[in-house]
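FAQ: What does the model actually see?

It sees only this:
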Amino acid sequence: MSTKVKAVDIAKKLGISKATVSLALNGKPGVNEATREKVLQCKQELEEERQRQLTALPEAIAVLIVNNTKNVLCGAEPDLWSGVLTSCLSAYEAEAERHGFAVSVYYLNAAEHNRDQILEQLKQPQIVGVVVVATEFTDKDHDWVSKIEKPVVLYDYEIPGENYNSVCLDNPTCVDMACEALLKKGCKKIKYIAVSQDIFNFTERRKEFQRYMMDHDIPVMKTDILRMGATINEVRKNIQQYFENHEVPDGLVLENYQISIGVLQGAAQAGIRIPEQLKLVGIDEVPSYSLGGVSLVQIGTPHRERAVVAIDLLCKEIDNQWRIHNRVLSLPYFINGDSI
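And it is asked to produce this:
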């Protein structure tokens, strides 16, 4: 909001034409002195009113959603992730309100002008802290975050060696739970099905899959981590083709919701019976209506709860309650099903 007043605002206030206001403001002939004074007085009053409105704005927490066009958070499959994002935003708002703050939402993209503009907006005095929803973050974003001159909490990301509060999913535990469930059911040929994107959560899961299997004396080859695409449709086509041209493994760890849905669709088209021929465990909770009638075993990842923790950590930093920074890992939960 700006304190600048337009000629049309003054014209409406005084009930005169915009042309008359323009003549008066620009010192042009064609308007009498009394009208000119009324216009100038009205302009001053409107500017003062807007200034009062600006200073009356509540202190706010900025929720900065990073969109690096990886199609994981922003631009992802319709309905599924948008529902998660909406739930998180409502949690940010509710928790911020509990602490006495409003919430302003910003979207950061890869364009340099957008990033400069966002930095300027974050300098507004009513912005007291920033939650960076960094699901699509890359190493290139680290320097940019350091330019934010307000308390910052990172959500879904960590910057090694830097002093930021962060709230992340315990990705290694997600993978451990999935692998353990498959091993307990007697699976010996387990593969990890991945999307084509590289983000913090996914790379952490892939590293843990390799570590877990090696710790259980199960050799891991490059071909045991299979990238199947960036969309549900790509995953469906690629996994169906894989099933038709390779020996079907006895167990799969599914990296995220796109993989879970795409693999289920591809397996159905390839005529593979679940769990008789193939056992599946998916990471990220998928609504049952998207699973094609299969009761998928899933590792749930609490999103809304992490959003609440992020606001709480930020408020403690804003209020100078803590001098230390905290790395919070939220534990996943097991969702029973009949896919193993």
